[in-house]
Amino acid sequence: MRRLNQSAIASALTLVIPGVLATLDADGFPYLTPLWFLHEPGVGVVMTSGVDRLHVKNLRRDPRASFIIEHEGVADMDGRPNVQVKSRGVCSLDEDHARWTRRITKRFAGSDALAELRAAAPMVAIVFEPDGWVGVVDGPRSEGRWWVDALAT
């Protein structure tokens, strides 16, 4: 396993794969939610979600959270390559979600119609502000940047 530098971490955060947001439930246990996201330098990781979702309720009570993305390469006889980028931090909620919802939906679904439909729904923007990023790559070909091929998709 080797650590990624900040440039490689920034590249990994552009992968069009869902991230996983971990919030704390009322009993203090992690609650994991896969979400579409957009990494916006200077802002953080922005996600949008329904206002009544449990992870949003958790964040209203306690803004502490963690976020991770993981991308696996094609496994072969040498093993399973993967890259992970993760952080812990705090989240803020922004009721003015429409512009974020449009951008995120277009990024993941490629549909203007769906983006407009979701932008009109009762949602909230979740802005995750990381304490700092940790990125690692492991498995066969971990010295190469095999995972950057996914950036073109």
Sequence stretches where pLDDT stays below 50 over 5 or more residues:
149-153
- What overall geometry do the principal axes of the alpha carbons give? globular
Annotated CATH architecture: Roll
CATH class category: Mainly Beta
Helix content: 10-25%
Strand percentage lies at 35-45%
The CATH homologous superfamily name equals Electron Transport, Fmn-binding Protein, Chain A
Instruction: Please summarize the sheet with the most strands.
Output: 9 strands, antiparallel
Q: Output the radius of gyration.
A: 16 Å
Average pLDDT, all residues: 89
Number of domain modules: 1
Distance between the termini: 25 Å
Structural class: alpha+beta
H and E string: EHEEEEHEEHHEE
- By DSSP, the count of extended strands is 9
Number of helices: 4
**CATH topology-level fold name:** Pnp Oxidase, Chain A
What is the fold's blueprint, element by element?
Elements: E1 2-3, H1 6-12, E2 19-24, E3 30-35, E4 38-40, E5 44-50, H2 54-61, E6 64-72, E7 82-94, H3 98-109, H4 112-119, E8 123-130, E9 134-138
Antiparallel strand pairs: 1-9, 2-3, 2-6, 4-5, 5-8, 6-7, 7-8, 7-9
